[in-house]
Design brief:
CATH architecture of the domain at 31-230: 2-Layer Sandwich
Number of helices: 20
Strand content: 15-25%
Helix content: 25-40%
CATH topology of the domain at 31-230: Heat Shock Protein 90
Radius of gyration: 30 Å
CATH class of the domain at 31-230: Alpha Beta
Structural class: alpha+beta
Length: about 675
Amino acid sequence: MPKKDAKKPVKSSKKKAQYGAEQITVLEGLDPVRKRPGMYIGNTAKEGLHHLVWEVVDNAIDEAMAGHANEAIVTLLPDSTVSVSDNGRGIPVDKHPGTKTSALEVVLTKLHAGGKFGQGGYKVSGGLHGVGVSVVNALSEWTRAEVKRDGKLWVQEYKRGKPLKNVKSTGSARGTGTTIIFKPDDQIFSTLDFDWQYILDHLRQQAYLTKGVKITIIDERTDQSKSYSFYFEGGIASYIKHINRNHEPKHDTVFYIEKEQDQINVEVAMQYVEDYKENVFSFANNINTIEGGSHLVGFRTALTRTLNSYAKNKGIIKEKDDALQGEDTREGLTGIISVKVIDPQFEGQTKAKLGNEEVKPAVDTVFSDSLAIWLEEHPREAEAIIGKALLAAQARKAARAARDTVLRKGALEGFALPGKLADCSSKDPEECELYIVEGDSAGGSAKQGRDRRFQAILPLRGKILNVERARIDKMLANNEIKSLVIALGTNIGEMLKMDDLRYNRVIIMTDADVDGAHIRTLLLTLFFRYFPDIIHKGHLYIAQPPLYRIDKGKKFFYVYSDDELEKRKKEIESSKPDDVASSEESKEGESSQKSDTGDVVTTQASGKINIQRYKGLGEMNPEQLWETTMDPSTRLMKQVTIEDAEKANEIFDILMGTEVPARKKFIQTHAKDVQNLDI
């Protein structure tokens, strides 16, 4: 057998890339921040822009928590500039022993520099694991630091994080404090538009969490300046009243305790209302820990144990099987847990969860001891709370029976999926996505137009139950919700298991009309109340179908808003017949065919223009639905996120809850802001 010629290695004409010491880049000072801003502030959009304000405000709050300040002022200035002032001690300006430069310059130009890393500067701090004012400096076009200290006004200016001159005294000054003025860099941020309401809500929360401190926000961006001040002696007890202002309380007296235990300051406030859901917010060093942590665990454990103990001692609960469970004691509860910890250990860069194990027993001890005394001293309030918990226990047992019927063994393993669900063939959740579609008509088009390998379709008939006004037992009796729960595979509420989620993307796809918006809102309410982790972990999306299709000659493209339609029409009318931009070529003669669905408007401008208005998803044929709304390479989707859990909770309460006066007031307040209204 003849031997095959051995293949000779082919010499590449390209010189091999070298990898040596010269390829190693060293980013010094604040260069890493400008190179990768998202690592430090999350993103360079609205959230990241406002994070700069939060960081500087945190410094003022830290001075207040340390007992050295009682006022902070945030001023929005023209040209996207912000000033933040406090009447604290003022950042030190003397020479730092390690760097031989002013301590002010060190704080403004060095990462992880400040008075929060020991050495007695601060006992507790919200900014300990924050990015600090140095990152604000790095991401600003220019910054000016003014410090009143030692009877003088000390000033230093910076350009994109670099000092222009040494720190110097510019004259005498009364009192003490720090002012940081900065203009975010338009080379970094996609927007420099500061949101008044967004900042107002954040500062209100900080004022509640730091009682006795006055926080003022001033808007001087226009000739008619406006200002707002917050000052709360009641702290988080006042916060509870603010959250519950649209609800009927079960008891008028708000429970409140503040006490230090093992060098941990524990502050707890709570009140029950005539509602079914739990609204508990936790904070560590004024940082909203949206995923909870050890302080929340300590609170929940103490609440259940203490209420059970009280009910047994009073003879209300006699049998062991009648004992209240955690979910019973938290139905209708509005609670706030705020702790101040010397060395907070947050899990993850977003500070979403507190990890300090020593905080759990501290919160448990302080809360349980004080709650037991409070219940004895307030027998009417205690009776109302225990009575509500017992009713919740009865509903829980009914809900368990309903849940067992819906989520029987095997149902979440794919053996008993809903008949209306057109599942995908892939079993890898990472690549799978579920479209929740409004109506059988749109469901039929979606089933035909989808990619069956990774796209599943679940059509819903009509409007689902408003879960804001129903307990879980009634909710699970609704066939549409039942089908959705089984399709997701995660179980629901307290038994939610995110590891069992069958789809990486859950996409709400409804018509672009009032009914579609209502169905979308009902679904968002369901996910917010019973599948919150699906939102927090970035799995929930809203599909964006087009409103119009424009045809001219052999060209066509899709338009997603009325403003875009007018812009496109002007572009077409001013262009030559062959210059019309489009998303892709259409078939010969396609534009001259009038669709059987939607409205077709014909205008004359350098040739015929056909404009088709899509009234619903069901009016699109499967091919159109795929290329406009479902094709991953061309579709538009909005990811559902929660910027402010307390604000989101309030909006759902107002719009979907039982309190009519609050909803009426909201409608009257925002009536003039409505832009799209179907009549």
